[in-house]
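so my prof wants the structure for this chain in the C-alpha cells format not the other one, which i didnt know existed until like an hour ago. anyway here's the sequence
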Amino acid sequence: MVCSSVKEGQDCFFMTKKGCGFNGGTCHIIVEECEGCQRVVEYTTGKYCMAFPDPAAKWHAGRCNMATHLQAISKKENGKVNPLKASKRLAH
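here's what i got, hopefully its the right format
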C-alpha cells in the first residue's frame, strides 16, 4: 500500500488500512552513518532510508549491507597465500 504517514506517496510493505504497522507506527530517520547513501530520500519530516524503516538497526551489528556509499572490503588483501596452492594454480 501507499504510505500516508511519513513517506507520503511511496509504496510501503508496512502500510495497512489501519495505518503504519511498523514498530512505533512510523519509519525512523537515518543515522549519521547513512549520510551519502543513494537510498536516502529527504521528506518534509526529515531524511529517511528507502530500503529499511529503521536504519539504526542495520548499523547496530556492523555495516549496513545496502549502503551504496561504502566500498566492499576485499578478503584477499588481508589473507596470506598458501605457497603450495599458489604453485598448483600456476601449473594449470
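also thought this was worth mentioning. The chain has one domain: 15-91.
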